[in-house]
Amino acid sequence: MLDQVADLVREVAATVVLPRFRHLSSGDIHQKSPGDLVTVADKESEKALTRGLTALLPGSEEAVAADPSVLDRMSDGGAVWIVDPVDGTNNFAAGKTPFAVMVALMQDGEPVASWILDVVGDHLTVAEAGSGAYRDGVRVKTRTDDPVPGQLRGVVARKYLPPLLRDEADQHAPAFLEVTQGHHCAGYEYPAIATDEQQFGLFWRVLPWDHVPGSLIMREAGGTVRHLDGNPYQPAHPEKGLLVAANDDIWRTVRNTLFPDLSYL
Question: Which CATH architecture has domain 2-140?
Fold first, then answer.
């Protein structure tokens, strides 16, 4: 099924998403909430992916941002597809990259497979529980060393961080080699950590369609995905605040550097 889903994701990206890139009219873009957009490409991609995925696995369900009620059944028995039909929609709507198509399969509340396609870059990252993570067919493993903060690059997604945490992160970010606000596309940030382009990412709002695909890729590549208090990421019951790092040691280094006073976490 890994190859079948990969083929489906590539087909939908090539026939539905990419042809609309930089060809959207004003009527093709709508605002779901302040600063949060949806386009005709999101809607058409979702329909095409849903048809294809549920045909591959009859009896399965689909969970997307458009229907969050399905997430209530994520922890129940059975198969649920997590779909982000265009991850990085704001980039896509503005005619910018990166943006991605992301899919994950959950079985009995646990992610068992995931696919992330960087549409314009044409990079496909895939993971299967217990079988590793692969980018364009080549296995990827995260780094295993523990560099000092001054040798680490990463992302702090500031938009949804509470003011106290945002101020604390801003104060201590200069200790790192580089800290950016990211590319506003989880489908870019997770593979970038897995391949050592960067070594960590901090996110506050943890929506399953944004984080389930990448979290499995990180786990299978050897990385660490935990909440700021150290609790493991549970897709069916996510807490706010997620720190992703190339390994456990880097995870601790980043958290303790950004937030040396942990009493409020």
Answer: 2-Layer Sandwich (3.30)
